[in-house]
Amino acid sequence: MTAIVDYDTGNLRSVADAMRRIGAEFTITAYPALLRGADRVLLPGVGEASSAMSQLRERGLDTVIPSLTQPVLGICIGMQLLCLDSEEGDARCLGIFPAHVRRLKPAENGLKIPHVGWNTVGGLRGTLLEGIDEETYVYYVHSYAAEVCEATIARTDYGGEFSAALGRGNFFGTQFHPEKSGSAGERILRNFLKP
User: Fold this and answer.
1) 32: burial class by Cβ within 10 Å (0-12, 13-18, 19+)?
2) How many Å apart are CA 147 and CA 65, to the nearest integer?
């Protein structure tokens, strides 16, 4: 069973819908015992980093999540919360990935912030991205992103390169939304759910 973390900051409905589409069993919970007992854990997120961290702390999940030993996948803000810190609200995050989250720079070529819509991923490596081709399009909605670091397993360029996906040990993250990224996103979710 996969547990989807409920901390009042998630895109729970779209993640749950994506899990149903691929036939995955899941539960939505904030209970530490259920999270520890799950086969896999999804940490979704939409919103603002410091508020999201406050929600995790209020539920005691800021200590539970880093202690998990099963595969964990953070999505969008969920991935950012697994980093060292975020400029958004000057948030101290969970420190699993060795990356700082920075505001996207408004590019001189007229790119808009937030970065909303389809963009490509490249520099792919690791089991999470098996079967995904270089320059595959995925769906983004964000104004902040993790810098490229040793845990980067995919990159995207939008006025500068950032980590599209991260992986370290049993922890993974995608800045893009696999639940909104069509067949590529479904493949990534299936990869994550593989025993």
Assistant:
1) middle
2) 22
Q: For residue 36, give both structure tokens.
A: 């520890």
The total of other beta-carbon atoms located within 10 Å of residue 57's CB is: 12
| C-beta of residue 11 within 8 angstroms of C-beta of residue 52 | no
131, 191 Cβ separation under 8 angstroms: yes
Backbone angles phi, psi at 173, to 5 degrees: -155, 150
Active site positions, annotated: 76, 177, 179
Per residue in 80-133, pLDDT (tens digit) is: 999 999 999 999 999 999 999 999 987 767 899 999 999 999 999 999 999 999
In whole angstroms, give the CA distance from residue 13 to residue 136.
25
pTM: 0.96
Are 139 and 118 in contact by the 8 Å Cβ rule? The answer is: yes
Rounded CA separation 31/77 (Å): 20
CA 68/CA 119 separation, integer angstroms: 31
Cβ-contact 177, 167 below 8 angstroms: no
